[in-house]
Amino acid sequence: MAILPLQLARVSNLLRANLGTSNINRTQQQLLEVQNQLSTGERLNLPSDDPGDSAIVQQLQKLLEQRKAEEDARRKAAAELRAKVDALKPGQATAVGGAAMKLAMEAAAKQAAAEAARKAAAAQSDIGM
User: Fold this and answer.
1) Are residues 118 and 98 in the same domain?
2) In-domain check, residue 56
């Protein structure tokens, strides 16, 4: 007659059922998270999904809002400049308008370079996630 250790021979049905239930619940939770990601198309639905990446996303959103405000201010200034240039006499408009337009074009080129650098940083950040 074989003698089996007690701890190996006795696994209650309740313990087996509880382990199976907890495995099913864990799998359902993981499935729900993946379904949320697929349905929204976003990896981060809540800041608690990944706090580190959420902080980066919030910083980038704040930076984008600042850039949008700067762009809006530039467009408003350009519209005012065009109105003032149009109000000048024809001889004055060419000299003053040309210099102002040159300055505006230089500022726009600098902004475009900064925007390209920001996009490259954002792309690099996306690759790191």
Assistant:
1) yes
2) yes
